[in-house]
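Repro:
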Amino acid sequence: MIELKKLTFPVLMAGSFCLPAPGGDWPQYRGPNHDGISLESIPTKWPDSGLTQVWKTPLRNGFSTFALGGGKVYTLVAREIEGAEQEVCVALDAASGQEVWAAPLGIAKYDGGGDSGAKGNDGGDGPRSTPAYDEGRVYAYSSRLLLKCLNASDGKVIWSCDLIKEHAGRNIHWESAASPLVDGDLVFVAGGGAGESLLAFDKTDGHVVWKEEDDLITQATPIAATILGERQIIFFMQKGLVSVAPKTGAVLWHFPIKGKPGAASSPVVSGDVVYGSMAYGVGTAACKITKADGGWSATEIWKLPGNKDANHWSTPVAINGYIYGIFDQAKFGTAPLKCLDLATGEEKWSQDGFGPGGVTAVGGNLLVLSDTGDLVLVQASPAAYTEMARAHVLTGKCWNSVAISNGHVYARSTKEGVSLNLLAGPRL
């Protein structure tokens, strides 16, 4: 295993390192395209002397990952403020890791969550949601359904909405884990009451643009995708997947994947196929989306019941017709990384030892963060599990995926966050 070292004079080394593809911000959960895929290039061989650590900083409690924009990185933590444990949105300088501002979001209390005392399930708890950055604003959604729009420069509140108080909001047992979705001029969240389960807010002033549907939330973050030429927002609720028109909220199609506990990964879209997975015995399914005579439909392609082939909360990625993700996450510390054929659900390979971490695709490969803090580069190939590089980068519990921006990887645990420059070479 490669040890993590801070290097003083990073350089590019021919042969072991590749020139980066054009990079950019990672402005919200699962990146700019909501699919967990980065088009950047990173080295496929890592130096024996260690990865370049740009900074590492304490970040107490939380399963949030990072969003990047405007020269800062944003995440949620839990802190004691005025004698009470609260969720806090923090902004760190992307170059140094120094905290720029912190904005409280309300009480942090989780019933039966990540530090429940179950075997292998310890090491901290905390907020589950990831903030979103857009045009100088940061959008944070608390575990208790409080949506805040903050000024990215100083963290001051621009507008806010308490869904429980203002929209008869209904939470789940573990509290909400969903991140806000920004697409176009709107911010999308779920969590309201009857007739307003799904909501779209104007991102500038926070007024409600539309509210629709009656269903209970899961832990899944909604995604924006273009299917058959039409932009749509896809939510994963307890009755299943539901797609709506972004500007009006008009329902385009439903696909049932039913389960009450609410532990679900976000939807994954590949062409005209949509994949969804829910834990606690519900399972995984894929559907094909069609449109005819002005109407939409979702038809089941395959279904795998039970926990063995469920992603729990860690959303997989789709590459060239295959799904790569962490499955059967009740196995803390040992849950496998798997490859499934998206067309059939057939398992192509499975590799134990990752636990409920997360998967991000970069440069056509997989960058996997294990729940114990190993960063692992794996070939995205259905032929076999092929590990290309590995480094231990974090202490604490990592129940999330990494963010990638301009050759840098940003990762965090329930104890700390780290920035790694994967394009920098070994010490001279």
